[in-house]
Amino acid sequence: MHKFIVTLSLLILCLSGAMAWDRYTNDTEYLIGTYAFQKIMRYSFSVASTSTVTLETMNTTGDTYMYLWSNTECRQVARNDDGGVGLCSKITASLRPGSYIVFVRSYSSNAAANCDLYKNGVKVINQGRYSGYKLYVGTKNAETRFRTTDLSAGSNTYCLLLNSSANLIGYNDNYGGLGSMVVAAEKPSYFIIGAYSDTTEGTCKVRYTADNNLEYLALCGNETRHAVSGNSFDDHFDSGSYYYGSVLASREWMFRGSNRMSYADGVDLVYIHAHGGWGSFTSEDEVGVDFTHPEGSAGGGHRTNYKSGDLEYIAFMTCQTVRIESETTWGWLQTRGWQSKYNSDGSITKGFFDGIHVVVGYHSNHHNVSRAFLDHASYWYEAKYFANNLDGGQSIWNAWKNANKSATDKTQHWLWCPNVDLGETSSIYIVPQANESLAQSHSTDYKLGDSNYYFGWRKSHYWYD
Fold first, then answer.
1. Cβ count near 292 (within 10 Å)
2. Tens digit of pLDDT for each residue in 105-130?
3. How confident is the model at residue 92, as a pLDDT?
4. CB within 8 Å of 97: residues ≥ 6 apart
5. Which terminus of the chain, N or C, has fewer Cβ atoms within 10 Å?
6. Which of 206, 111, 107, 119 is nearest to 166 (CA)?
7. Where are the alpha helices (DSSP H) in 394-438?
8. In contact, 184 and 169? CB cutoff 8 Å
9. CA 213, 398, 404, 362: dihedral to nearest 10 degrees?
10. How close are the terminal C-alpha atoms of the chain, in Å?
């Protein structure tokens, strides 16, 4: 049994409420090397209604490689090498409403050249410079962070990240200065280092940090604080020294805008014990956090806006938050805002749970049984067993369902609470991530537009699955 560790930065976070929860705090950053870099060409545009757009490089002095990226959906739309004339690139795609960006680099690393860029037959860039340094980064995990530091005087990096299939999985211009930082949405393969402009090419160092250490955040209200601290969830979720976390009073701002990225979406697992309702819970400051309206009280902080969220799992020890009204369809999940969806005009309504793999909670009310002593409460035991089950390697769903059974069995032994039924456990998950354990938290975050991305649902009393 290893001693539980809370880093200094996390302690500062809990005390001041002003520090962001950096999920790389507990990991080691490594230097890959120092590299010279040259410009990557880029061109941004917007689409007001669904339409077909053709992008093409022409009159090149080299060999172009082009990517089309949707900033609205945070994913690659298309890529091309030699689809145009000779060594030029060409992409024709039907695009939904939203904002887009085109990147053009050289096929060979740091082979600077020039070309024209056309959009729908109209020249939008005249003999722009393009190049980029292609760095192989090997077999890193999803959620590995790559960044440029120690830039030469006057230089400014602009970086792309590719997977093993050569698809673009992320990009960044400035992060904390003129350097760049990209977090891998899936297993990365190549880091493309580019300059922001023709006149600021230079050298930089490239560093990476793998998100190896699991982090959790336990949130609670005034009436439930003992369920996540004081010999329950917090104490029992510490059997490995690679777990880092803390207990905070639940505040609605932790789930809004950049606050969500700093708190709830800055860790792997969030455990919430409070009062709840259909698709929502009530924070300690008595403000409702409504997950069914992503642009409202809980909105603005979905991962697809910021591209750097980490949250994979949420456990609601609350009444009815994870409630499903239909056993055969879950279209209401989209209309209620849990999941992103395409609207009839091709635009996107973003759901609150984009990028989250598994959400567990209760379809019904969660009943806290009567007790003579505080530590005999059913929710005290459920928090304890859930933590122990996760530590033991059970999947998120099994750890939750089995904890319900164990807590019910335990509290039934007390004479003042016979025939205890704590509630009907339920789960919403993203296929194919239904049975993930914490050890699989680095699996790819499926999002809207991916062929394997859709919701599944189940509920269970502990005596059947």
1. 18
2. 999 999 999 999 999 999 999 999 99
3. 98
4. 47, 48, 49, 50, 72, 345, 346, 347
5. N
6. 107
7. 396-411
8. yes
9. 90
10. 32
